[in-house]
Amino acid sequence: MTVKIYGPTASRAARALWIVHELGIPFEHVAMEMKDLKNADYLKVNPNGKVPALVDGDFKLFESMAINLYLAAKHGKDGFFPASLEDQAICHQWSFWGMTEVEKPLLTILIDMFMTAPDKRKPEAVAEAQKALPKPFGVLNGALQGRDYLLGSKFTVADLNLASICSWAKPIKFDFGPFPNAGTWLDRCLSRPAYKAARSTK
Ligand SMILES: N[C@@H](CCC(=O)N[C@@H](CS)C(=O)NCC(=O)O)C(=O)O
């Protein structure tokens, strides 16, 4: 069955597009326009009127991390979705952590830098977000000490989910100098062919 991924490539739908490329499963990309997300037809897919959303046969799902964890559990091979309950919990841990500890400050800076008219920018909010980032990136840096990926030597859905959030550190030119493990891990993840393929999905 072909899964449908809803949402423009330049949105959080990129996370789901990355994983379908990584898993090598057939998918249909329903690119959507942001202006259509509150249309009645789309609200039947995702009542939040947001992207991404997934439809897999009769099954519908929203929330980017939930979509990716579902697809990884269903289609992951060779440890991409780990076998043990503990390792699966670690994948959930990093996915939730990315959303709660990292996403907001990164997005605050990204929106201010690239999507806000100069007279509407909020330097205080940006300064606060800048101040918030070293703490989680310090934690991530420590977790990656002596290992290539979050669970060890294998790239898993934990890496994909967290790197898809942390990818926003690139356009805002976050300084990974004090966090070299996190910086090289992010480069390693973002150099994967599936990430590049997802970004060029029309
Ligand atoms: N926590 C949700 C956030 C979804 C979200 O806010 N998506 C944005 C696009 S990146 C959106 O649909 N915005 C439209 C709106 O808020 O009306 C997820 O990770 O899927």
From TrEMBL:
GO terms for molecular function: transferase activity. It comes from the Bacteria. Residues 1-79 form the GST N-terminal domain. Transmembrane segments: none annotated. Keywords: Transferase. It holds the Pfam family GST_C. Coiled coil: none annotated. The keyword Transferase applies. InterPro entries: Glutathione-S-Trfase_C-like, Glutathione-S-Trfase_C_sf, Glutathione_S-Trfase, Glutathione_S-Trfase_N, GST_C, Thioredoxin-like_sf. Residues 84-202 form the GST C-terminal domain. Belongs to the GST superfamily. This is Glutathione S-transferase. It comes from Reyranella soli.
